[in-house]
Amino acid sequence: MRKTFDAELQELNYEMINMAAAAEDAIDVVTESLASGDDQAAHAAMEMTKSMDQMERDIENRCLRLLLQQQPVARDLRTISAALKMVTDLQRIGDQCANIAEIALLLSQQQQTRTLADIRTMSQKAGVMVKRSIFAYVNRDTDAAQAVIDLDDEVDGFFRTVKRDLVELIVANKEQADQAIDLIIIAKYLERIADHAVNIAQWAIFCVTGQIQG
Length: 214
Description:
Blueprint: H1 2-36, H2 39-69, H3 74-107, H4 117-139, H5 142-172, H6 177-209
């Protein structure tokens, strides 16, 4: 019985890794669509996030089966309950990517007047945070999880810089206000993606310690 249970837990790990990889890929593709103005990349990112809906359902179903059909000990309960929380954060990351893709489609029809360097950096860091947070969960690595939490300050710093620069642009040139506001919204979505990665990292720590960080 325990051998079967452990195999199911391993499958849960694989599914979590796959969903995190899908989230990371969606972040990469939607960032590319912003940089290149490629409508196909934006549409591809939106399609990728749709596949995450099924991944979420599959993981939730597996967690429920593990809870109902097996007799998990306290450590197992922490693993399963954390996965149920994490999958919600991963799904929300997918939603944020879809939202960014929609704005990217609007921006592709306009002449870009601002560099997206800081936004691309935010996106790259957010993608790394998502990947490392799931790594921390699968490997029960609290140090890796804490590193993800620490990275959030960098993303927050980039967001403040982007917002400040774009607000200055709006003040200086109101004709570019609509585009600047769209870019601020994108930066905010990326900040939220990083926040979801922090949530995942905190649940990874919970799996090991049984303590929920505030």
